[in-house]
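Sample intake sheet
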Amino acid sequence: MEDFPWLSLLIALPLLGALIVGLLPRGGEELVKRVALGVSLVVAVVAGVMASQFDTGGARFQFDETYWWIKDFGVHWAVGVDGIALTLVLLSVVLVPLVILASWNDADRSGGVDVPAKRSVKTYFVLILVLESMMIGVFAATDVFLFYVFFEAMLIPVYFIIGSYGGAQRSYAAVKFLLYSLFGGLVMLVAVIWLYPLSAKPASEGGLGQGTFLFSELSKLNIDPTTAKWLFVGFFIAFAIKAPMVPVHTWLPDAAGQSPAGALVLIVGVLDKVGTYGMLRFCLELFPGAANWATPVVLTLAVISIIYGAVLAIGQVDLKRLVAYTSISHFGFIVLGIFAMTSQGQSGAALYMVNHGFSTGALFLIVGFMIVRRRSARVDAYGGVQKEAPKLAGMFLIAGLSGLSLPGLAPFVSEFLVLTGTFTRYKVPALIATTGVVLAAIYILWMYQRTMGGPATEKVKGMADLSRREVWAVGPIIALIVVMGFFPQPVLNVINPSVEQTLSRVDKKDPAPTGNVAENGARP
Protein backbone atom coordinates (compact mmCIF):
# COMPACT_ATOMS: atom_id res chain seq x y z
CA MET A 1 0.00 0.00 0.00
CA GLU A 2 2.93 2.33 -0.66
CA ASP A 3 0.89 4.48 -3.06
CA PHE A 4 -2.20 4.68 -0.86
CA PRO A 5 -3.07 8.34 -0.01
CA TRP A 6 -2.91 7.88 3.74
CA LEU A 7 -2.41 11.51 4.67
CA SER A 8 -5.04 12.90 2.32
CA LEU A 9 -7.46 10.38 3.80
CA LEU A 10 -6.53 11.42 7.34
CA ILE A 11 -7.12 15.07 6.49
CA ALA A 12 -10.41 14.34 4.73
CA LEU A 13 -11.97 11.97 7.30
CA PRO A 14 -12.50 14.55 10.09
CA LEU A 15 -13.93 17.02 7.55
CA LEU A 16 -16.31 14.34 6.29
CA GLY A 17 -17.20 13.55 9.89
CA ALA A 18 -17.85 17.24 10.60
CA LEU A 19 -20.17 17.38 7.59
CA ILE A 20 -22.07 14.30 8.76
CA VAL A 21 -22.39 15.68 12.29
CA GLY A 22 -23.56 19.01 10.90
CA LEU A 23 -26.31 17.31 8.89
CA LEU A 24 -27.69 15.32 11.81
CA PRO A 25 -31.19 16.37 12.94
CA ARG A 26 -31.59 18.85 15.77
CA GLY A 27 -32.23 17.53 19.22
CA GLY A 28 -30.20 14.37 18.75
CA GLU A 29 -27.33 15.41 20.99
CA GLU A 30 -26.47 11.87 22.04
CA LEU A 31 -26.20 10.81 18.39
CA VAL A 32 -24.01 13.83 17.63
CA LYS A 33 -21.60 12.84 20.38
CA ARG A 34 -21.47 9.21 19.32
CA VAL A 35 -20.85 10.04 15.66
CA ALA A 36 -18.14 12.57 16.54
CA LEU A 37 -16.42 10.07 18.83
CA GLY A 38 -16.74 7.31 16.25
CA VAL A 39 -15.19 9.46 13.51
CA SER A 40 -12.28 10.45 15.75
CA LEU A 41 -11.65 6.80 16.63
CA VAL A 42 -11.68 5.82 12.94
CA VAL A 43 -9.13 8.57 12.26
CA ALA A 44 -6.95 7.29 15.11
CA VAL A 45 -7.12 3.71 13.79
CA VAL A 46 -6.24 4.79 10.23
CA ALA A 47 -3.32 6.83 11.58
CA GLY A 48 -2.14 3.83 13.59
CA VAL A 49 -2.23 1.57 10.53
CA MET A 50 -0.29 4.17 8.55
CA ALA A 51 2.28 4.59 11.33
CA SER A 52 2.84 0.83 11.48
CA GLN A 53 4.16 1.01 7.92
CA PHE A 54 6.63 3.83 8.60
CA ASP A 55 10.19 2.67 7.93
CA THR A 56 12.70 4.35 10.24
CA GLY A 57 15.50 3.30 7.91
CA GLY A 58 13.74 4.37 4.73
CA ALA A 59 13.26 7.69 2.95
CA ARG A 60 12.99 10.74 5.14
CA PHE A 61 9.50 11.77 4.00
CA GLN A 62 7.12 8.86 3.63
CA PHE A 63 3.48 8.48 2.57
CA ASP A 64 4.20 11.48 0.35
CA GLU A 65 1.74 12.76 -2.23
CA THR A 66 2.37 15.61 -4.66
CA TYR A 67 -0.26 17.04 -7.00
CA TRP A 68 -0.54 20.39 -8.72
CA TRP A 69 -2.89 22.75 -6.93
CA ILE A 70 -2.24 26.25 -8.37
CA LYS A 71 0.18 25.53 -11.20
CA ASP A 72 0.71 29.14 -12.27
CA PHE A 73 2.05 29.99 -8.83
CA GLY A 74 4.00 26.80 -8.21
CA VAL A 75 1.67 25.63 -5.43
CA HIS A 76 1.18 21.91 -4.84
CA TRP A 77 -1.01 19.72 -2.70
CA ALA A 78 2.06 18.08 -1.22
CA VAL A 79 1.94 16.04 1.97
CA GLY A 80 4.34 13.63 3.63
CA VAL A 81 5.72 12.93 7.10
CA ASP A 82 9.12 12.34 8.56
CA GLY A 83 9.58 10.93 12.06
CA ILE A 84 8.96 14.24 13.83
CA ALA A 85 5.81 15.07 11.87
CA LEU A 86 4.51 11.53 12.28
CA THR A 87 4.73 11.65 16.07
CA LEU A 88 2.88 14.98 16.14
CA VAL A 89 0.15 13.65 13.85
CA LEU A 90 -0.25 10.68 16.18
CA LEU A 91 -0.36 13.03 19.18
CA SER A 92 -3.22 14.89 17.50
CA VAL A 93 -5.32 11.86 16.63
CA VAL A 94 -4.86 10.33 20.10
CA LEU A 95 -5.93 13.46 21.98
CA VAL A 96 -9.02 14.31 19.91
CA PRO A 97 -11.20 11.28 20.87
CA LEU A 98 -10.18 11.73 24.51
CA VAL A 99 -11.19 15.38 24.36
CA ILE A 100 -14.54 14.43 22.81
CA LEU A 101 -15.09 11.85 25.54
CA ALA A 102 -14.17 14.38 28.24
CA SER A 103 -16.54 16.93 26.68
CA TRP A 104 -19.53 14.58 26.60
CA ASN A 105 -21.73 16.68 28.86
CA ASP A 106 -22.55 20.36 28.40
CA ALA A 107 -20.90 21.25 31.71
CA ASP A 108 -17.60 19.73 30.64
CA ARG A 109 -17.21 22.37 27.96
CA SER A 110 -17.69 25.29 30.31
CA GLY A 111 -14.95 27.88 30.35
CA GLY A 112 -15.93 28.89 33.87
CA VAL A 113 -18.79 30.75 35.50
CA ASP A 114 -21.18 33.26 33.90
CA VAL A 115 -21.35 31.46 30.57
CA PRO A 116 -24.39 30.86 28.35
CA ALA A 117 -26.67 28.22 29.82
CA LYS A 118 -27.28 26.49 26.50
CA ARG A 119 -24.92 26.24 23.55
CA SER A 120 -24.97 24.13 20.43
CA VAL A 121 -23.53 20.69 21.10
CA LYS A 122 -23.51 19.95 17.39
CA THR A 123 -21.47 23.06 16.51
CA TYR A 124 -18.93 22.32 19.22
CA PHE A 125 -18.13 18.86 17.92
CA VAL A 126 -18.14 20.05 14.30
CA LEU A 127 -15.48 22.61 15.25
CA ILE A 128 -13.41 19.98 17.07
CA LEU A 129 -13.42 17.69 14.00
CA VAL A 130 -12.55 20.55 11.64
CA LEU A 131 -9.71 21.49 13.96
CA GLU A 132 -8.44 17.90 13.90
CA SER A 133 -8.28 17.99 10.10
CA MET A 134 -6.32 21.26 10.15
CA MET A 135 -3.89 19.92 12.75
CA ILE A 136 -3.10 16.83 10.70
CA GLY A 137 -2.70 18.97 7.59
CA VAL A 138 -0.31 21.46 9.12
CA PHE A 139 2.09 18.73 10.26
CA ALA A 140 1.79 16.78 7.01
CA ALA A 141 2.21 19.66 4.53
CA THR A 142 5.46 19.58 2.55
CA ASP A 143 4.55 22.58 0.39
CA VAL A 144 5.32 25.80 2.28
CA PHE A 145 2.28 27.61 0.89
CA LEU A 146 0.01 24.69 1.80
CA PHE A 147 1.54 24.73 5.28
CA TYR A 148 0.64 28.41 5.54
CA VAL A 149 -2.95 27.68 4.49
CA PHE A 150 -3.37 25.08 7.24
CA PHE A 151 -1.48 27.34 9.68
CA GLU A 152 -4.06 30.09 9.20
CA ALA A 153 -7.09 27.80 8.79
CA MET A 154 -6.56 26.45 12.31
CA LEU A 155 -7.44 29.87 13.68
CA ILE A 156 -11.06 29.67 12.53
CA PRO A 157 -12.34 26.76 14.65
CA VAL A 158 -10.25 27.84 17.66
CA TYR A 159 -11.61 31.40 17.48
CA PHE A 160 -15.22 30.19 17.47
CA ILE A 161 -14.59 27.61 20.21
CA ILE A 162 -13.13 30.24 22.55
CA GLY A 163 -15.60 32.96 21.56
CA SER A 164 -18.72 30.79 21.78
CA TYR A 165 -17.92 28.22 24.48
CA GLY A 166 -15.52 30.05 26.78
CA GLY A 167 -15.89 31.94 30.03
CA ALA A 168 -17.16 35.41 30.87
CA GLN A 169 -14.28 37.15 29.06
CA ARG A 170 -14.42 34.80 26.08
CA SER A 171 -14.84 37.54 23.45
CA TYR A 172 -11.75 39.41 24.63
CA ALA A 173 -9.68 36.23 24.78
CA ALA A 174 -10.85 35.06 21.33
CA VAL A 175 -10.10 38.39 19.66
CA LYS A 176 -6.70 38.65 21.34
CA PHE A 177 -5.81 35.13 20.20
CA LEU A 178 -6.93 35.94 16.67
CA LEU A 179 -5.07 39.26 16.43
CA TYR A 180 -1.79 37.83 17.71
CA SER A 181 -2.05 34.84 15.39
CA LEU A 182 -3.07 36.89 12.36
CA PHE A 183 -0.18 39.29 12.87
CA GLY A 184 2.29 36.42 12.99
CA GLY A 185 0.64 34.78 10.01
CA LEU A 186 0.78 37.94 7.89
CA VAL A 187 4.47 38.42 8.67
CA MET A 188 5.11 34.82 7.66
CA LEU A 189 3.04 35.24 4.50
CA VAL A 190 5.42 37.95 3.31
CA ALA A 191 8.34 35.58 3.84
CA VAL A 192 6.50 32.70 2.13
CA ILE A 193 5.72 34.77 -0.95
CA TRP A 194 9.31 36.04 -1.03
CA LEU A 195 10.51 32.48 -1.49
CA TYR A 196 8.81 32.16 -4.87
CA PRO A 197 10.91 34.71 -6.84
CA LEU A 198 14.04 33.42 -5.09
CA SER A 199 13.32 29.90 -6.32
CA ALA A 200 12.55 31.23 -9.83
CA LYS A 201 16.06 32.68 -10.20
CA PRO A 202 18.48 30.75 -12.42
CA ALA A 203 20.79 28.24 -10.76
CA SER A 204 23.76 30.54 -11.39
CA GLU A 205 22.15 33.07 -9.03
CA GLY A 206 21.33 30.52 -6.31
CA GLY A 207 17.80 29.74 -7.51
CA LEU A 208 16.14 26.67 -8.98
CA GLY A 209 15.15 28.05 -12.37
CA GLN A 210 11.47 27.55 -11.60
CA GLY A 211 9.21 29.07 -8.97
CA THR A 212 8.01 26.58 -6.37
CA PHE A 213 6.91 26.24 -2.76
CA LEU A 214 7.91 22.58 -2.32
CA PHE A 215 9.97 22.20 0.84
CA SER A 216 12.26 19.61 -0.74
CA GLU A 217 13.15 22.07 -3.51
CA LEU A 218 13.35 25.21 -1.38
CA SER A 219 15.87 23.53 0.91
CA LYS A 220 18.26 23.50 -2.08
CA LEU A 221 18.21 27.30 -2.46
CA ASN A 222 21.40 29.27 -2.01
CA ILE A 223 20.00 32.45 -0.44
CA ASP A 224 22.28 35.39 0.24
CA PRO A 225 22.89 35.91 3.99
CA THR A 226 21.05 39.23 4.34
CA THR A 227 17.91 37.97 2.62
CA ALA A 228 18.03 34.73 4.58
CA LYS A 229 18.09 36.67 7.85
CA TRP A 230 14.98 38.64 6.91
CA LEU A 231 13.18 35.47 5.85
CA PHE A 232 14.21 33.72 9.05
CA VAL A 233 12.81 36.59 11.12
CA GLY A 234 9.53 36.48 9.18
CA PHE A 235 9.02 32.80 9.88
CA PHE A 236 10.37 32.96 13.43
CA ILE A 237 8.01 35.73 14.57
CA ALA A 238 4.99 33.69 13.50
CA PHE A 239 6.31 30.56 15.20
CA ALA A 240 7.34 32.41 18.38
CA ILE A 241 3.79 33.75 18.74
CA LYS A 242 2.32 30.33 18.14
CA ALA A 243 4.74 28.57 20.52
CA PRO A 244 4.35 30.95 22.58
CA MET A 245 7.60 32.60 23.66
CA VAL A 246 8.28 35.66 25.75
CA PRO A 247 7.54 38.48 24.90
CA VAL A 248 4.76 37.46 22.45
CA HIS A 249 3.11 35.01 24.83
CA THR A 250 0.42 37.10 26.49
CA TRP A 251 -2.45 35.71 24.42
CA LEU A 252 -2.06 32.24 25.96
CA PRO A 253 -2.91 32.92 29.64
CA ASP A 254 -6.02 34.85 28.58
CA ALA A 255 -7.07 32.16 26.11
CA ALA A 256 -6.39 29.46 28.70
CA GLY A 257 -8.39 31.23 31.38
CA GLN A 258 -11.45 31.50 29.13
CA SER A 259 -11.32 28.39 26.93
CA PRO A 260 -13.29 25.21 27.65
CA ALA A 261 -10.90 22.71 29.18
CA GLY A 262 -11.30 20.08 26.46
CA ALA A 263 -10.48 22.47 23.63
CA LEU A 264 -7.62 23.87 25.70
CA VAL A 265 -5.99 20.44 25.57
CA LEU A 266 -5.79 20.78 21.79
CA ILE A 267 -4.76 24.45 21.82
CA VAL A 268 -1.82 24.00 24.18
CA GLY A 269 -1.16 20.31 23.63
CA VAL A 270 -1.12 20.36 19.82
CA LEU A 271 -1.64 23.76 18.18
CA ASP A 272 1.17 25.47 20.04
CA LYS A 273 3.52 22.71 18.86
CA VAL A 274 3.13 24.11 15.34
CA GLY A 275 5.38 26.94 16.52
CA THR A 276 8.23 24.76 17.70
CA TYR A 277 7.73 22.31 14.84
CA GLY A 278 7.96 25.21 12.39
CA MET A 279 11.21 26.39 13.95
CA LEU A 280 12.73 22.95 13.65
CA ARG A 281 11.42 22.28 10.16
CA PHE A 282 11.49 25.62 8.34
CA CYS A 283 13.67 28.09 10.26
CA LEU A 284 16.60 25.69 10.59
CA GLU A 285 16.41 23.84 7.29
CA LEU A 286 15.48 26.64 4.90
CA PHE A 287 17.72 29.25 6.51
CA PRO A 288 20.54 27.37 8.31
CA GLY A 289 23.00 30.26 8.19
CA ALA A 290 20.47 32.70 9.57
CA ALA A 291 19.51 30.18 12.26
CA ASN A 292 23.12 30.08 13.44
CA TRP A 293 23.22 33.88 13.35
CA ALA A 294 20.06 34.16 15.49
CA THR A 295 20.95 31.39 17.96
CA PRO A 296 22.33 33.61 20.79
CA VAL A 297 19.18 35.76 20.81
CA VAL A 298 16.82 32.77 20.57
CA LEU A 299 18.61 30.93 23.38
CA THR A 300 18.32 34.04 25.55
CA LEU A 301 14.58 34.27 24.87
CA ALA A 302 14.20 30.56 25.58
CA VAL A 303 15.90 30.85 28.97
CA ILE A 304 13.81 33.91 29.83
CA SER A 305 10.65 31.99 28.90
CA ILE A 306 11.68 29.08 31.14
CA ILE A 307 12.22 31.25 34.21
CA TYR A 308 9.47 33.79 33.53
CA GLY A 309 6.79 31.16 32.92
CA ALA A 310 7.76 29.21 36.02
CA VAL A 311 7.86 32.24 38.32
CA LEU A 312 4.47 33.51 37.14
CA ALA A 313 2.98 30.02 37.47
CA ILE A 314 3.86 30.05 41.17
CA GLY A 315 1.82 33.19 41.73
CA GLN A 316 -1.36 32.20 39.88
CA VAL A 317 -4.69 31.79 41.67
CA ASP A 318 -6.49 30.42 38.58
CA LEU A 319 -5.77 26.77 37.81
CA LYS A 320 -6.04 27.06 34.04
CA ARG A 321 -3.82 30.14 33.91
CA LEU A 322 -1.35 28.36 36.20
CA VAL A 323 -1.04 25.39 33.83
CA ALA A 324 -0.79 27.81 30.88
CA TYR A 325 2.21 29.56 32.45
CA THR A 326 3.88 26.21 33.10
CA SER A 327 3.52 25.55 29.37
CA ILE A 328 5.31 28.80 28.54
CA SER A 329 8.18 27.51 30.68
CA HIS A 330 8.12 24.09 29.01
CA PHE A 331 8.10 25.63 25.54
CA GLY A 332 11.22 27.49 26.56
CA PHE A 333 12.90 24.11 27.12
CA ILE A 334 11.75 22.91 23.69
CA VAL A 335 13.14 25.99 21.91
CA LEU A 336 16.34 25.70 23.93
CA GLY A 337 16.83 22.15 22.68
CA ILE A 338 16.08 23.09 19.07
CA PHE A 339 18.61 25.93 18.94
CA ALA A 340 21.27 24.09 20.91
CA MET A 341 22.08 22.63 17.47
CA THR A 342 23.00 19.24 18.90
CA SER A 343 21.35 15.93 18.17
CA GLN A 344 20.63 15.25 21.83
CA GLY A 345 19.06 18.68 22.24
CA GLN A 346 16.90 18.42 19.13
CA SER A 347 15.88 14.82 19.81
CA GLY A 348 14.89 15.89 23.31
CA ALA A 349 12.98 18.88 21.95
CA ALA A 350 11.07 16.76 19.43
CA LEU A 351 10.26 14.19 22.12
CA TYR A 352 9.30 17.01 24.51
CA MET A 353 6.66 18.21 22.04
CA VAL A 354 4.91 14.85 22.34
CA ASN A 355 5.44 14.41 26.07
CA HIS A 356 4.26 17.93 26.86
CA GLY A 357 1.10 17.29 24.86
CA PHE A 358 0.24 14.31 27.04
CA SER A 359 1.35 15.87 30.33
CA THR A 360 -0.44 19.17 29.83
CA GLY A 361 -3.41 17.45 28.24
CA ALA A 362 -3.93 15.35 31.36
CA LEU A 363 -3.59 18.39 33.63
CA PHE A 364 -6.12 20.46 31.68
CA LEU A 365 -8.63 17.60 31.49
CA ILE A 366 -8.47 17.00 35.24
CA VAL A 367 -8.67 20.73 35.98
CA GLY A 368 -11.73 20.81 33.72
CA PHE A 369 -13.34 18.01 35.72
CA MET A 370 -12.64 19.96 38.92
CA ILE A 371 -14.21 23.12 37.49
CA VAL A 372 -17.33 21.18 36.51
CA ARG A 373 -17.76 20.08 40.12
CA ARG A 374 -17.02 23.36 41.88
CA ARG A 375 -17.93 25.86 39.14
CA SER A 376 -14.68 27.67 39.87
CA ALA A 377 -11.12 27.63 38.54
CA ARG A 378 -9.66 29.35 41.61
CA VAL A 379 -7.13 27.45 43.66
CA ASP A 380 -8.73 28.57 46.93
CA ALA A 381 -12.02 26.95 45.89
CA TYR A 382 -10.48 23.57 46.72
CA GLY A 383 -8.64 21.88 49.55
CA GLY A 384 -8.50 18.29 50.72
CA VAL A 385 -9.96 16.95 47.50
CA GLN A 386 -8.00 13.71 47.87
CA LYS A 387 -10.22 12.80 50.83
CA GLU A 388 -13.38 13.09 48.74
CA ALA A 389 -12.15 12.13 45.26
CA PRO A 390 -9.09 9.86 45.53
CA LYS A 391 -9.11 8.77 41.87
CA LEU A 392 -9.16 12.37 40.70
CA ALA A 393 -6.40 13.32 43.12
CA GLY A 394 -4.25 10.32 42.15
CA MET A 395 -4.39 11.09 38.45
CA PHE A 396 -3.83 14.78 39.17
CA LEU A 397 -0.72 13.86 41.13
CA ILE A 398 0.73 11.73 38.31
CA ALA A 399 -0.04 14.42 35.72
CA GLY A 400 1.48 17.06 37.98
CA LEU A 401 4.63 15.05 38.66
CA SER A 402 5.06 14.57 34.92
CA GLY A 403 4.86 18.37 34.63
CA LEU A 404 7.90 18.69 36.89
CA SER A 405 9.68 15.95 34.89
CA LEU A 406 9.91 13.33 37.61
CA PRO A 407 12.20 10.42 36.60
CA GLY A 408 10.10 7.52 35.38
CA LEU A 409 7.54 9.76 33.70
CA ALA A 410 7.67 10.77 30.04
CA PRO A 411 8.83 14.43 30.20
CA PHE A 412 11.93 13.53 32.24
CA VAL A 413 13.73 11.87 29.32
CA SER A 414 13.04 14.76 26.95
CA GLU A 415 14.04 17.43 29.47
CA PHE A 416 17.20 15.51 30.35
CA LEU A 417 18.18 15.27 26.67
CA VAL A 418 17.49 18.99 26.13
CA LEU A 419 19.66 20.05 29.06
CA THR A 420 22.42 17.56 28.24
CA GLY A 421 22.46 18.52 24.58
CA THR A 422 22.49 22.22 25.41
CA PHE A 423 25.26 21.87 27.99
CA THR A 424 27.64 20.32 25.45
CA ARG A 425 27.65 23.60 23.51
CA TYR A 426 26.10 26.36 25.63
CA LYS A 427 26.89 25.79 29.28
CA VAL A 428 25.58 29.05 30.74
CA PRO A 429 22.07 28.84 29.21
CA ALA A 430 21.86 25.18 30.25
CA LEU A 431 22.83 25.98 33.84
CA ILE A 432 20.34 28.84 34.07
CA ALA A 433 17.62 26.64 32.54
CA THR A 434 18.06 24.07 35.31
CA THR A 435 16.59 26.68 37.65
CA GLY A 436 13.32 26.03 35.83
CA VAL A 437 13.44 22.43 37.06
CA VAL A 438 13.55 23.64 40.68
CA LEU A 439 10.78 26.17 40.09
CA ALA A 440 8.66 23.46 38.47
CA ALA A 441 8.79 21.44 41.67
CA ILE A 442 7.57 24.49 43.57
CA TYR A 443 4.57 25.36 41.40
CA ILE A 444 3.43 21.76 40.87
CA LEU A 445 3.76 20.56 44.45
CA TRP A 446 2.30 23.77 45.87
CA MET A 447 -0.64 23.53 43.48
CA TYR A 448 -1.28 19.93 44.56
CA GLN A 449 -0.91 20.72 48.24
CA ARG A 450 -3.35 23.65 48.10
CA THR A 451 -6.00 21.80 46.12
CA MET A 452 -5.68 18.13 47.08
CA GLY A 453 -3.80 17.95 50.38
CA GLY A 454 -4.91 18.45 53.95
CA PRO A 455 -8.33 17.89 55.48
CA ALA A 456 -11.34 18.21 53.22
CA THR A 457 -12.77 21.72 53.39
CA GLU A 458 -16.46 22.50 53.53
CA LYS A 459 -16.22 23.66 49.91
CA VAL A 460 -15.37 20.18 48.61
CA LYS A 461 -17.43 18.04 51.01
CA GLY A 462 -19.38 15.54 48.93
CA MET A 463 -17.38 16.27 45.78
CA ALA A 464 -17.88 13.43 43.28
CA ASP A 465 -14.94 11.33 42.19
CA LEU A 466 -14.15 10.63 38.54
CA SER A 467 -16.88 8.85 36.65
CA ARG A 468 -16.17 5.88 34.40
CA ARG A 469 -16.33 8.12 31.33
CA GLU A 470 -13.87 10.59 32.86
CA VAL A 471 -11.47 7.80 33.77
CA TRP A 472 -11.57 6.57 30.19
CA ALA A 473 -10.89 10.12 28.98
CA VAL A 474 -7.79 10.77 31.09
CA GLY A 475 -6.62 7.23 31.93
CA PRO A 476 -5.02 6.48 28.53
CA ILE A 477 -2.96 9.68 28.74
CA ILE A 478 -1.72 8.76 32.22
CA ALA A 479 -0.79 5.31 30.93
CA LEU A 480 1.14 6.80 28.01
CA ILE A 481 3.00 9.15 30.37
CA VAL A 482 4.18 6.18 32.44
CA VAL A 483 4.98 3.87 29.51
CA MET A 484 6.92 6.52 27.61
CA GLY A 485 8.76 7.41 30.80
CA PHE A 486 10.31 3.94 30.93
CA PHE A 487 10.38 3.10 27.22
CA PRO A 488 11.13 6.26 25.21
CA GLN A 489 13.47 4.54 22.77
CA PRO A 490 10.83 3.42 20.23
CA VAL A 491 9.71 7.04 19.79
CA LEU A 492 13.31 8.28 19.67
CA ASN A 493 14.07 5.71 16.98
CA VAL A 494 11.41 7.37 14.84
CA ILE A 495 12.56 10.92 15.64
CA ASN A 496 16.35 10.57 15.44
CA PRO A 497 16.77 10.11 11.65
CA SER A 498 14.86 13.34 11.05
CA VAL A 499 17.00 15.15 13.60
CA GLU A 500 20.14 13.97 11.84
CA GLN A 501 18.77 15.28 8.53
CA THR A 502 18.02 18.65 10.12
CA LEU A 503 21.47 18.95 11.64
CA SER A 504 23.09 18.06 8.32
CA ARG A 505 21.57 21.29 6.98
CA VAL A 506 22.98 23.39 9.79
CA ASP A 507 26.64 24.08 9.14
CA LYS A 508 27.98 23.41 12.62
CA LYS A 509 29.91 20.55 14.17
CA ASP A 510 27.75 18.39 16.42
CA PRO A 511 29.60 17.35 19.62
CA ALA A 512 26.70 15.19 20.86
CA PRO A 513 25.90 12.53 18.23
CA THR A 514 22.53 10.86 18.23
CA GLY A 515 22.64 7.41 19.71
CA ASN A 516 20.70 4.97 21.81
CA VAL A 517 19.17 6.66 24.83
CA ALA A 518 20.78 4.18 27.16
CA GLU A 519 24.18 4.83 25.60
CA ASN A 520 23.76 8.57 26.16
CA GLY A 521 22.82 8.05 29.77
CA ALA A 522 19.30 9.37 29.34
CA ARG A 523 17.25 6.42 30.51
CA PRO A 524 15.70 7.05 33.93
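Comment: The first strand starts at residue 62 and ends at 70. Residues 343-374 form the longest helix (32 residues).
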